[in-house]
Design goal:
Strand order of the largest sheet: 9-8-7-10-11-16
Helix content: 25-40%
Structural class: alpha+beta
Number of helices: 9
Strand content: 15-25%
Distance between the termini: 52 Å
Largest sheet: 6 strands, mixed
């Protein structure tokens, strides 16, 4: 086996030779910058692989990958709000989604095409984001669901728009039409494009709804408490997989994460094993069993609960304990988790036994293994917090997405 280290400079020299051949002469029709950027990305991928930060690089899929080309500052011209790419005589006819920040100039331009055939231009520029002003609503708990997309601890329920269900019949008709077309034919390509456009319509509406929802929560609330959901495991339930996928809880958490970081808000994530649904928010007693069909229940203390509102209030209370005490420090309750322990993530017995810790005389002694004697801060509730009162104005690189190119 031949082992040879190939660097970016070596691949760039190969690219120059390829352009001189008859088979690859078409590479001269485009700017050399996107080609060189692809080689740089390849070099980064192999560097991450050898550093054990990623898997071995693979080729992009022609069916599932998004086609894109990246242009650096030497390969485009930005003048008077108009963008001209290298080897183009006229500026692009772009429908801008929003203007660039005042005084900002793009440093990188990425042109991409989605499966529905739409072209997009993404501009990377420096932006200054000021923290949002303080709000009257201090903290709110958010419970994710399917009947109601999200339920707030204030009692407000955000309805689930069910974007996929609204276009399900149209999508099924387009997919049946695609299945009848011969593979490799022009009619099959047209039918595939029709299916892709329906999927894009569903994804666009879902993304727009989540953008508006997360923006509202960040503007109105200083601290937001959510629960850590394992969406991948929920997708194993074939009866709920389609509804869970359409809810896009993971995308909601991702948007909420970067928006709270932008505007100086606090995001607290409680442990996934915290029994928010079965716990009475009034007396703290844990119910034995609550099937999904039970939407309201009455505790033995006499308090009637809406299933989702009660869960949101419990998430809020757990988030407040995370902020105050680091998680797990709560009033004593009967079996406050599945294992009868506190909400702190527990280590298996003996996991730290024999690990030496410094003693008072400079020596070491075995680490105790008793309950509650784990390392401080090893809670099962993760907190991502930022003090808005002490945060300066944020500076960073912000990608303005997307601008639709072409009419």
């Amino acid at each position: 086996m031949r082992r040879e280290r190939v660097t970016y400079n070596a691949t760039s020299a190969m690219l120059t030779g390829w352009k001189k051949t008859d088979e690859l002469a078409f590479l001269n029709d485009v700017s050399c910058v996107p080609l060189q950027q692809a080689l740089r990305h390849l070099q980064t991928a192999f560097a991450n692989f050898f550093a054990k930060r990623a898997r071995y690089p693979t080729f992009k899929s022609r069916k599932r990958s998004r086609r894109s080309a990246e242009y650096t500052a030497s390969a485009f011209r930005w003048r008077d709000g108009r963008l001209t790419l290298a080897k183009m005589t006229e500026p692009l006819d772009i429908v801008w989604s929003r203007p660039l920040p005042q005084g900002a100039a793009p440093s990188t331009v990425t042109v991409s095409q989605d499966p529905a055939g739409r072209w997009f231009v993404s501009l990377l520029c420096d932006d200054r984001i000021d923290p949002a002003p303080a709000t009257t609503a201090a903290v709110v708990g958010v419970d994710a669901g399917l009947d109601s997309l999200f339920t707030l601890s204030t009692g407000e329920k955000i309805p689930n728009p069910r974007h996929e269900r609204r276009d399900r019949r149209r999508l099924a008709r387009a997919q049946r039409n695609l299945a009848r077309k011969a593979k490799g034919s022009a009619n099959r390509a047209k039918a595939r494009l029709a299916v892709a456009r329906i999927h894009a319509r569903i994804a666009d509406r879902r993304r727009d709804h989540l953008h508006k929802l997360t923006t509202r929560l960040v503007r109105e609330t200083q601290t937001i408490v959510i629960e850590d959901l394992t969406v991948r495991n929920m997708m194993a339930n074939h009866s709920l997989a389609r509804a869970v996928s359409d809810a896009a809880w993971r995308q909601f958490r991702s948007m909420l994460g970067y928006r709270t970081d932008w505007y100086g808000r606090d995001l607290v994530v409680v442990d996934r094993w915290f029994p928010s649904t079965r716990l009475c928010s009034a007396c703290g007693v844990l119910a034995e069993h609550l099937p999904l069909a039970v939407r309201s229940w009455t505790c033995r203390c006499g308090q009637a609960h809406d299933r989702d509102v009660n869960a949101a209030r419990n998430i809020l209370a757990e988030g407040l304990s995370v902020i105050a005490c680091g998680g797990g420090v709560r009033p004593h309750r009967e079996s406050s988790s599945r294992t009868g322990r506190s909400s702190v993530k527990q280590e298996p017995p003996g996991a730290t036994q024999g690990i030496p810790v410094p003693s008072g005389r400079g020596g070491s002694q075995p680490r105790p293994v008793g309950p509650g004697q784990g390392p401080p801060g090893a809670g099962g509730a993760a907190a991502v917090r930022a003090d808005a009162g002490r945060l300066p104005a944020r500076e960073g690189r912000r990608r303005c997405l997307p601008a639709a190119a072409g009419r």
